[in-house]
Amino acid sequence: MPELPHAAEYRKYLEPKTLARISGLDLRARLIVEGLMTGMHRSPYQGISVEFAQHRPYVAGDDIRHVDWKVFGRSDKIYLKQYLEETNLHLICVVDASESMGYSSIDGGDGTQWSKYDHATAIAASLSYMAIQQQDSAGLAVFDSDLKKYFKPSNLPGQWKIITHELTMIPRLKKTNTGKILDQLAEKLTHRSLIVILSDFFDDIESIKKGLRHLRYKRHEMMVFQLLDPMEIEFPFQDVTLFKGMEEMGDLLTEPRALRQGYLEQLSLFTEQLKKLCRGMNIDYHRMNTSDPLDVTLSGFLATRASSIK
Amino acid sequence: MTIAPLNILAAWFVSPGFAVAGAALASIPIIIHILNRRRFKTVRWAAMEYLLQAMRKNRRRLKFEQWLLLAIRCLLIFLMGLALARPLGCENNTIAALGGQRTALHVFVIDNSYSMAYEPGGRPDAKSHLDQAKLMAKKLIDRLSAGNEEVMVITASSPIDKDKTIDPHAATPKPTYDLQSARAAIDRIEQTAAATDLEGAFQLALRTAKEESKLPTKRLYIFTDGTRSAFEGEGGKAVEALKQTGPQLAQAFGKPNLFVLGKPGQWNQAVLKLDPANNLVTTKFSADFVTDVKGYGAGPDPVLQWKLNDVPAGVAKSLKLDLETQPQSLSGISIAEGGPRVLSVTLAGDDRLKIDNTRWRVVDVASEMKVLIVEGERGIGALQGSGSFLELALSPPKDLDPETRPSSTSSAKTDSYVLPEAPIGELELSNKILTNYRAVFLTNVGQVNPNQADQLKKYVEQGGTVIIFVGPAVNSDNYNQQLVPRGLLPGRLIKTVSTNDKGYHFDFNPKGDPHPFLKEFKGEENSGLTTAQVWSYWQMELPANTSAERVLSYQAENGKPGDPAVTVHPLGRGRVVYFSTTANPEWNGLNPKPIFVALIHEILAGSVGAADRWMNLTVGDALAVPQSLGLTASPTLFDSSKNPVAMENATDQAGITTYHSAKPMTHPGVYLLNVGNRTIPIAVNVPSNEADVRVIANDAIKKALGDIDLAMEDDTLAIAGLKIDSGNDWSWAFMALVLIFAGLECFLAMHFGHYKRGKRLQATPEPALATSN
Fold first, then answer.
1. So what's the pLDDT on residue B719?
2. Among A250, A267, A297, whose Cβ lies nearest the Cβ of B770?
3. What digits encode the pLDDT tens for the residues A170-220?
4. Residues on chain B touching A247 (C-beta within 8 angstroms)
5. Are the Cβ atoms of A265 and B54 closer than 8 angstroms?
6. What average pLDDT does the segment A75-86 reach?
7. How close, in Å, is residue B31 to chain A by CA atoms?
8. Residue A2 lies in a domain
9. I want to staple A16 with a disulfide (CB 3.0 to 4.6 A). Which of A114, A197, B121, B741 is the partner?
10. How many CB pairs under 8 A join A and B?
11. Same domain membership, residue A38 and residue A59
12. What 3-state DSSP class applies to A287?
């Protein structure tokens, strides 16, 4: 196993551009998690519990409800209280491997790209790693138009290797069919689980709604990560461009400057619908820019989890 | 009638090329649009659904925006082309500078002939008509748009300073849009003493209009006193020329504005002419002088005063002047000494145009007149030469017996002012400088060689007189070949006509109306002309269109008109007199009789060129000093104000140097020419054809200009109908449209998002990242 970088340099390794140059997903995930945990004073297992584990310095994104005000009063420094995790979690990362997830505008240099799929797999691997390290079970579902792979949650040490291997191997060629996949998944899951869905959700909202409802019906906890490339968010194209649609969406030759406003409105409308849908089902929704560092994402995840457990 | 498209454009635009270019370049935005559609980037795109939805939703709007912007851009370029092309009607815009064109041409024709010096009174800012014309022209120029409209200023007096580089009428060398320089040019216009030359000014105006043919608007402003002399003149060619030029003016300038500055009822009194009554004034006889004075319009009676050498001559008398006033004369003036004398006539009165109230005349009083006699037949004894009797007749001795007198009279005492040199043979003629003689007599000269013929011709053309007596020695073929073609004989010599019976008689009728040369013989029954006999003469065939006058003819016979006996005809500035018989008694019975002396003297006095012609000039003439003057120093000339006038000299191929004034005379008066050993007065007078200052009716002016449509104005600048407006400025309108469309294009392009942003994009509002519901 390669030696990990020093703690002080970790944060820069969490930048997507940096991660893009690291070929192995397992290494990526460990970098992410170790980087994240470096700020936690090597206490990866401190979750949401009643048994105090340690203090750690406050970092941006931390929930201020965990600030130890007594320490602050004595030392003028902001520390968070951390507790030992006591849950037995079944984490299932559902990763969209459709063609649209392969879109990438982030150049990592040396011919490497950082796609939405890369972002999704990095998150999935990191979360799985954290879960397994906490003795929780981690599973994986990879889909495009069909459910390509499904691994039941397991806390065996080899599980994480299986997950990272599968995430690396899955090709991205087909259209998305999110609703159908979520339906299939709902039928497969027997235990209540924490389902983390990583997708751009470029699909029919009604179909997505149906799938999410089905999972929710089965009383699963869910977190939705909508991954968007910065180009998709900003649409900064200037010159006349031929847009060749992925997932058999056809082509469009247009002057993007004139269409930008309309496009952004449509995208915003969709994300609002998705967000509203999630809110209606009490599902955590996160829209993610694939150019943002992953620790921010994971901090947000942990904070959300903490708040939901409380 | 069909008009070619380009002609239509030319009729609508000043620079149609810009309009065509604008139309052509309007396609550029379309081409750019098409090219842009062909040059595109390809991007694989995931969020296609939303792009397609946006496209579906905005397709019509986008299309509309694109077409709108494209149309505006095309229109922008087209309008720019139109603005630069300057649609007709533009008179005042700054596009002129961009287009390299000016908007309008304004031609000001200002009459500065001497009649414009008339001072009508009642105008506080302008004394004379010319002052008023300059004032009005400058005020009109003030109304023009500086830098955009060009002005040409033309004067309308007969050109005096004939500069070869520019038209002498041009006050501005060429059209200028520097209005200040145009005003300055008007200020520089001087009152001349020359006659009106509207035709010359109009021709320059037409040339200017032709050179500036691209300008849509051309206006002509004519400032004149509207007098009879300006528009009706002396009739003939000048009036005809104006009639033909008028329509051309109307074609070039539309409706010219004509400002008549003359006032109804203005009047003028002028001395038009002053001459000796006879051709020759001598110390021998008293002389009479005649002057022509006229009154144009009703004015008070002036006083006429004659002066000789600035000393009053005769009694001043009051005259009632009008158009019918008969010539006034001064009679019996004896001048004791020969040489140039200055005679003048002045009208003293309350005249508003003083410049023509005095006229001067330099009279070269002959105290001696050298003549040359060329004999074809030389005599050994007294009176044997063919010119001996002629010499005697020209200078009859007072006391010598004709039989014992010497062969020449040159040293004899005589009362005659005529001084014939000793007769010479025909071969000596070539050695003589003929200009030293007032007249040259050829007497029975058999042949004249071509050089001699040329010499004689040149002499006559310069003002000399040749009197040809024929005789038996004359070779008619030689005369017909050498003299007739050179104009030294009025017709071909046919044959000699002789009689052994009683001689031929002249058809002189003392009671009739004789030739002016013979007016002294009028009424003289016993003059001898009627009884004189001629036994032989050369018959001459006078052409039908000859300019020769018969002084005397032979009596008609058998109903046929008589042959010419004595003729005179002009050649250049001189005259040639032909006598059909001999100068001695060989062919006639004249010579022994006193009538021959009288006849010769009268014909000589009548035919010799006035030696003072070069001393009497009109404004605009240059002074040319004759070679015969015998200069002892380079001549110097001073005008009537004692200011020096530049003289120049020229040397011909024969090495003879002649002097002339560098410039024509510009002001009337008595100039003084100093030739070293003496001073010669030179009279310079105003032209006589400008004196009629009566204003003619507007209709008459229009008629004089070929009945064209004129905007007639008076001497005020109310000018209600005068349009120097700039209200039709279509270029401005088009330029304003260009600016409006440019602004609209910018606004719409930004509003529609059809403009290129910088690399840094405006942040797009989006939901906060990593936020949960």
1. 44
2. A297
3. 666 677 778 888 888 888 888 888 888 999 888 888 888 888 888 888 888
4. 46, 48
5. yes
6. 75
7. 15
8. no
9. A114
10. 159
11. no
12. strand
Backbone angles phi, psi at B726, to 5 degrees: -125, 20
* Alpha-carbon distances, residue A107 vs A15, A21, A110, A111 (angstroms): 12, 10, 8, 7
Task: Tell me the residue type at B326.
Answer: Q
pLDDT higher than threshold 90 for residue B767:
no
When CB atoms are compared, the residue of A61, A252, A261 closest to B51 is A252
Q: Check pLDDT > 70 for residue B428.
A: yes
C-alpha B330/C-alpha B346 separation (Å) is 13
B86-108 in b/e burial notation, b at 16+ Cβ within 10 A?
bbebbbbbebbeebebbbbbbbb
Range of the domain at A70: 46-84
- The token pair at B707 is 């009945």
Domains and CATH numbers, chain B: 5-40+58-90+731-752 (no CATH), 106-265+701-713 (3.40.50.410), 268-358 (2.60.40), 369-607 (3.40.50.880), 613-685 (2.60.40.10)
- With 0-12 CB in 10 A as exposed, 13-18 as middle and 19+ as buried, what is B769? middle
Degrees (nearest 5) of the Cα angle B392, B395, B537?
Answer: 45
How many Cβ atoms from other residues are within 10 Å of residue B73's Cβ?
20
Largest CA distance in chain A: 64
Residues A210, A73: one domain? no
Q: Which of A260, A267, A300 has the CB atom closest to B753's CB atom? A: A260
Buried b vs exposed e over A100-118: b needs ≥16 C-beta within 10 Å? bbbbbbbebeeebebbbbb
Q: Contact B691/B622 with Cβ under 8 angstroms?
A: no
| A37 shares its domain with A186 | yes
CA distance B42 to chain A (A): 5
Cβ atoms of B131 and B138 closer than 8 Å: no
